[in-house]
Write a structure and sequence with these properties.
Blueprint (H helix, E strand, L loop, with lengths): L2 H13 L2 H8 L3 H15 L4 E4 L2 E4 L1 H24 L7 E7 L1 H17 L3 E7 L2 H9 L5 E4 L8 E16 L7 H7 L1 E3 L3 H12 L11 E4 L8 H4 L5 E4 H6 L6 E4 L6 E9 L6 H15 L8
Parallel strand pairs: 3-4, 3-5, 7-8
Antiparallel strand pairs: 1-2, 5-11, 6-9, 6-10, 6-11
Helix pairs in contact: 1-2, 1-3, 1-4, 2-3, 5-11
Amino acid sequence: MNIDWLRTYCTLVETGHFTRTAEKRHMTQPGVSQHIRKLEDSLGKDLLIRQGKGFMLTHEGEAVFHKGRQILAELDALALSVRHDDPWRGVCCLSSPGSLGLKLYPHLLAWQAEYPGLEIDYRIGPNDSIERDIVERRIDLALLTRPALMPELQCEEIAREELLLVTPASCHTPDWESLTQLGFISHPDAGWNAPRLLQANYPQFDHLDNLKRNGFCNIISAILEPVANGLGFTVLARYAAEAFHRQQDIRIHPLAERVFEPVYLVQRRYSAQPRRIQQMIQLVKQTLAGEGDVANR
């Protein structure tokens, strides 16, 4: 099997487009088609079903793509291992949910200031999109608040972040009646973390949909703005709650049953990390391990 043909094929499947594949591989579109035909001929199987300008994969095409990516990743790792690998130079791309980003990003910027040859590329997003990004090699490293689902990934639980009940400062006693009167301020992670904390501490809670909803915000630094303005309560991860700029207008309530959200470090299973990423992994672990309110594994 010709490795160039395989690399062209895997690039085509990843991009879903012949033109973008030609650009990424520095080829012509007919050259891309020729590589695909030669790979199919060498295997004696059709890998694609052409549909106008698009395509879908055959069963054999799926198998070749998944195994081919593993082979190419191992070859890339081999090439990387025999070249000079400067631990203090290059792009370090990390993605995480917003609360973790508020905690980690300043530490990573301080690291970059110490080693100017590094470039920190930090992206915030929900778990599902982060997982797709690392599988598709748009990022080097990921942090998730659930285990990785895709078989191409490996994950390690490195810490837990506490979930907190946050109300307006005027709410001194967060009994169930007070919370239902306030109403709930929702956010992208609320459907996952709010029921866990509320079920553990309020037997009256049955479903988030049964709470009066008074707003939604997907801007991590602004989720507590409506809470600070007295418009409702929410459940938020500790780093985001503690980073909010109007601490005097909110109240964080210690509850009888503390609930923690796991933090998973996620990497591609079939890819060796360059030394700069290995250094970043250690920094991330050390930063989270230094928190007294995080129960570490």
